[in-house]
Design a protein that fits this description.
The protein is α+β, with helices and mostly antiparallel strands. It contains six helices and seven strands, in the order αααβααββαββββ. The longest helix has 15 residues, at 117-131.
Length: 222
């Protein structure tokens, strides 16, 4: 089913990514944990309207376009060409932006049912490769949020303050490496966890409450 968010993979080899008839990567799979949101995409006899409208009004400019006519081999490339200079924000060359002192702070929920989380992981990796690890370490951070849905919600710790982290980074040169996140129910915080700068993840120290962020450390998985 067309999803209206086609784009280059940047050469990444990602497990489960959709493939064209020629084996080229088209887009990324949804991640485990997002299943409860799949009904938004599979809502009956008609596909997700944001996807079909993208092809109907932007790609083909035909309000009568029928999604049954979608051709994976041809139309994905056409959509990517149409969106390249207008909608797609997948250019990893951020050197001009970073040269002006820009900071990029990204976050994405692993349980997002709308935009595959691996798209953000892939963009981060290709951007680091493009601008160089040293510059990326100064100016780019990605935080992947376990259990969070599309921009928020979900069963994981989905409340956090990215704005303060950005202000401290830009104005005080304090690059964020660990951001406190919480999960509340009934107006009461029931769990806190650290969000760790990718590729680090939160690891339980082995003692203390698993609902207390203080009992976790950020480290790169072995």
């Amino acid at each position: 089913m067309p999803d209206g968010r086609t784009g280059s993979s940047g050469g990444a080899n990602v497990y489960g990514a959709e493939e064209s008839p020629h084996g080229d990567q088209v887009y990324f799979n949804l991640s485990p944990g997002s299943e409860l949101g799949w009904g938004m995409l599979a809502r009956g006899p008609e596909p997700f309207p944001a996807a079909t409208d993208q092809f109907r009004y932007v790609v083909f400019k035909d309000p009568n376009w029928d999604w049954h006519a979608f051709d994976l081999e041809k139309d994905v490339g056409l959509a990517d060409q149409m969106d390249h200079d207008t909608i797609n924000a997948a250019d990893p060359n951020l050197k001009p932006f970073l040269a002006h002192g820009g900071k990029l702070l990204m976050y994405h929920g692993w349980a997002d049912p709308g935009v595959p989380p691996l798209a953000s992981v892939n963009y981060y990796k290709t951007t680091v490769d493009t601008v160089g690890e040293a510059k990326a370490a100064e100016s780019i951070r990605l935080f992947m949020v376990p259990g969070m849905g599309h921009c928020g919600g979900g069963e994981g710790p989905n409340t956090f303050d990215m704005m303060t982290a950005m202000v401290d980074w830009r104005e005080q040169s304090k690059a964020p490496e660990r951001i406190l996140a919480s999960r509340s129910a009934g107006g009461k915080v029931e769990r806190t966890r650290p969000l760790c700068a990718y590729p680090q993840v939160a690891r339980y120290k082995g003692s203390g409450s698993v609902d207390d962020a203080a009992n976790f450390v950020c480290e790169v998985p072995k």
